[in-house]
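Lab notebook, bench 4. The sequencing result for the construct came back, and we need a structural model before the next group meeting so we can plan mutations. Quick request posted to the team channel:

Model the 3D structure of this chain.
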Amino acid sequence: MNPFTIPIFLVAFVLLGTSCSSPPGKGYPVSQERPGLSGKTKKTTRDDFGVEGRDYKAGEVLVKFKPHVADKRRKEIAGSLGLETVRFISRLDVYLMKIRGGLTVREVIERLQRFGEVEYAEPNYVRKASQPKGE
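Done. Here's the predicted structure in token form:
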């Protein structure tokens, strides 16, 4: 096995996310009760991306712009949606952005997808090496 096979697979898995794991047409978002750290239940909402705060980081998106897009235009697009660049992941050519305005992750992604200069936008998914059974 090529030593680069596993990292490439993991990158592809992270980039694809879990959007295909939610059954279509099931009426999401759906509220559910989840136990919090204090033992009290916490109400969460599931959408096409999963549960914010559990499946993906709240207030963060990953954005890949098309190769021809100038830095000035990237900043204009980000500014129009209240996004601040946290860091640039050069090996993936992806920007990690923090939502500073009052928009949700879903709203920001929907608006970013309307720009012809954006190749893709998705939540900043949380991945764990192993999860306990039942999660």
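The helical segments are 5-16, 71-80, 105-112.
Will bring this to the meeting.
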